[in-house]
Amino acid sequence: MSERERRLARNxxxxxxxxxxxxxxxxxxxxxLAQTAHFVCECDDPVCTESVxxxxxxYERIRANPIWFxxxxxxxxxxxxxxxxxxxxxxxxxxxxxDGADVARATDPRS
Length: 111
Ligand SMILES: [Zn+2]
Known about the structure:
Blueprint: H1 3-28, E1 36-40, E2 51-55, H2 56-63, E3 68-71, E4 81-86, E5 91-95, H3 99-106
Antiparallel strand pairs: 1-2, 3-5, 4-5
Helix pairs in contact: 1-3
């Protein structure tokens, strides 16, 4: 695996961990699954600080797939992923099969 791919995968997995904590806090405060919450963009840019509005139920569905990540529209990196779903508020990217997808699966916080 190239150093660049490893680094990109690390960034996305870090943001995913942050969102897992956001979701946990939402559950503790009993935020309804139908409500939107601010999650951090899970793109591979380490200095991206943008957020996306995602409903709890949508987040759960995205997280059920270990190689899916939620990003601000336009933050996709076509060299390592492709857009699996588009919405008005965010896009879902799927890691291209290969090293990036392997890392995403290996570090899946839900597995
Ligand atoms: Zn981003």
